[in-house]
Amino acid sequence: MSNVYVADQPEAAREGRPSGRLLEVEDLRVEFRTRDGVAKVINGVTYHVDAGETLAVLGESGSGKSVTAQTIMGILDTPPGFVTGGEVRFHGKDMLKMSGEERRRIRGEGIAMVFQDALSALNPVFTVGFQIAEQFRIRRGMSRRDAKKRAVEMLDQVKIPNAQQRLNEYPHQFSGGMRQRVMIAMSLALDPEVLIADEPTTALDVTVQAQIMDLLADLQRERHMGLILITHDLGVVADVADRIAVMYAGRIVEEGDVHELYAKPAHPYTLGLLESIPRIDEKGQQLRTIRGLPPSLLNIPSGCPFHPRCPMAQPICPEKVPPLLQLGPTRASACHFAEELVQRD
Amino acid sequence: MTDSILEARDLVKYYPVTRGVVFKKTVGHVQAVDGVSFDLRKGETLGIVGESGCGKSTLAKVLMHLEKPTSGGVTFNGQDIYKLGATGLRRLRRNIQLVMQDPYTSLNPRMTVGDLVGEPFEIHTEVAPKASRRQKVQELLEVVGLNPEHINRYPHQFSGGQRQRIGIARALALRPEIIVCDEPVSALDVSIQAQVMNLLEKLQDEFGLSYIFIAHDLSVVRHLADRVAVMYLGKIVEIGTEDEIYERPTHPYTQALLSAVPVPDPNSRRNKAIIRLTGDVPSPTNPPSGCRFRTRCWKAQDVCARDVPLLEVRSGSDHPSACHFAEKREIVVSHEAGELTELPTRTL
Question: B87 CA to chain A: closest CA distance, Å?
Fold first, then answer.
């Protein structure tokens, strides 16, 4: 199938950009100081994304996947959230040490974000066109008219029909899927190098979800963006990701190439997740479950945070925190028994 | 059919759309449910799937007698439920119970678990004498896998999955024959979802329950349901056994819906060409003439705009399918491209 986009180069030519690690998060630590105590939300998260690559960050609610993204974007609510350690490097420069002004310059042009709930992320009292054009006026110094023209182009790119007309409509006049397209148009307006999509399709129906995921994948390929896809849906991840980082209780418990990770999980939590989902392509018998509940972040179990729920737990697990160790060129796992797990059949 | 416990016939539910504050004028109707018929057999799980706005939850409300239908009827064990008097209705309520989607808002935060699960006994005092109620509640908590000693705790002290278990215990209290589950696991995390689904299966075996299981997640429905009805814009477009719907779907909408579900296996990417539906679901206030799916269908012909396709067994379909051109198509195993696709078929 052809003739989908006029595949012209987006405005900033990619060749001019430095190669190598685009965005790196290293040993990031974030805590929330609440009335009930200190919740250690992120306890040493390390991951990176390169240009043109899709990294899926997989985890259940409370695993810290969204807070990591908020910290990268610099939109963490402080207080209660405090960064207590680590670095977030963009093109090798630590963003956590930058001034507000420097960070603002990266936001939108360097790193942009798509939020889960487009209705609450968009401003209800301004038209969609105004909200997209605003970026061109303020950041690019365009005139109102030119900015509006660019906004129409953006809506066209995310395949909103009648873009010219819909520019003057308000967010509530759009359907859920169309609203998410507007969000994507807005985040891509300044041609970012990294796009963080935080559960972009969770609120949408399956047929619409498929449309949006396709759109994201196409735009990413065209623009050679790094994409961080935050999700809890193992199906979506299998469809689009190159690499996966699995999070549990504020840590990365496993990281690896998508094919290897699905074929041979190297952490009991990943294995448990894969076994506990009902699948559309199989009529299964009873589902395997992960016993117990995710831990409270106010009181994370000692040693490996997964040990109270782990079927493989040994005496060492509550004693010692397993470090995230490299298993191969593209694999890392934070389990004391990762090797055994991978070798086991 | 002799073994069916609940029969719905031509259920229609329209909500009026009004304009004006003082002099209200009806300017149209939201056709939420429009001519739905099915049987629920004893001990089976009937899954109802569809996207948001297709009328699944309205259907649940009508079946529960929380809303009266605009026309059509439902019989429970041969009795028309909309013709029951006050006493009859009370008895009916004992037999059909509801588990709701959101375990955070469906439990009163000021009531303890004991009060919440025991409340049905206050209304239906004949089920359990006052003295034995506390014990009954504790038994129920045990059945759904909660600690009976937590009877005096409040909902906020429980996690989402545990709260959903409280909701299930409450639905079970009066030993109903049918439980209508409206998206019971969609608010839960993956690892918890499996626990609740296993619990629902266990309870069905133990108490011989019949479930009407409403969900938008096709994988979840496949796992639990014996038969499945697919809804689109207020109508059932296809109904059949789990195998018929998932392995041999004949309605284009079902085929598109199934092909859009991501499979948790990165190796399936290569042999996967997905039918992409274009556009959005039309408004239920003004649905398309004839077949309601025709505006998004790649098979649409003139006849589709003219005649409403009946839900019946056709030459191309071994189970009822509401499409003039129903035919089998391999969807789940090897995905095949649709002819009219706006978005490109992804080849990775």
Answer: 40
